[in-house]
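User: ok so my PI wants both of these folded by tonight, can you help

Assistant: No problem, let's get them done. Here's the first:
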Amino acid sequence: MEKDTNHFEWTHKRADTGECFPADVLLSAMKLDGKTVLQAVVRDISERKQAEAGLRIAAIALESLEAIAITDANQAFTRITGYTAEESIVRLPAACLSPVARTPSSIHRWLI
């Protein structure tokens, strides 16, 4: 270590179960009784990583150029269908299709 501390993310393995998990690691070098020792502080960041992944998926969906309806509608969905976000929430997805696309087979795909 060039500095007295080093901070990074790593994948660790639990000693008791052998399960791997994402971790935040802080290494600190210090002198103890005249000898250099290394202290490691390891924090499980599994929940944070799951939340970040969810936010990335949400950002991709909201910024997509394709029409996407989840429980709300993104800007592309409202632009393509002409429905407001509020209108799209209360409608069956098949009802949001244009009249040209309202064939039994296309509606069936929405209902599956």
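One down. Here's the second:
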Amino acid sequence: MLTDLASALKSIISQRLVRTTTGGRVPAVEVMLNTKLVSDLIEQGDFSGIREAMEKSMAEGSQTFEESLARLIMEEKITRKEGLANSDSPTNLLWRLQNDFSMAAKASQSQQQAEESTENTGPSFTEIVLDVKPG
């Protein structure tokens, strides 16, 4: 039966409606795509390993509740308190808020600085023309 489930499953989508800062509700969405690793874990009956596989998954479109909640907090759609109350793992959510978005902000800032510094430093690789003559 687990083999049938593992081979037939495409994805699982779960959502929680979380109270917004304006008093409404917004969905926090968890998406698990059935990768080869997830399929193997289902066949083995290792359901506890699936969460770890989702967190480490590089599959486009997969996300945990913590990723969704962190995005909603950073967009100021929900409060930090509300996010922590609805998180499967408040510790993982706090880590994500402190690290993922600070790294993204630093990367964005360094990219902007690199773009600004190349504006005034002369030719770029796209402006260089090589004149190759047969020897």
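Residues 90-119 form the longest helix (30 residues). The mean pLDDT is 80. Good luck tonight!
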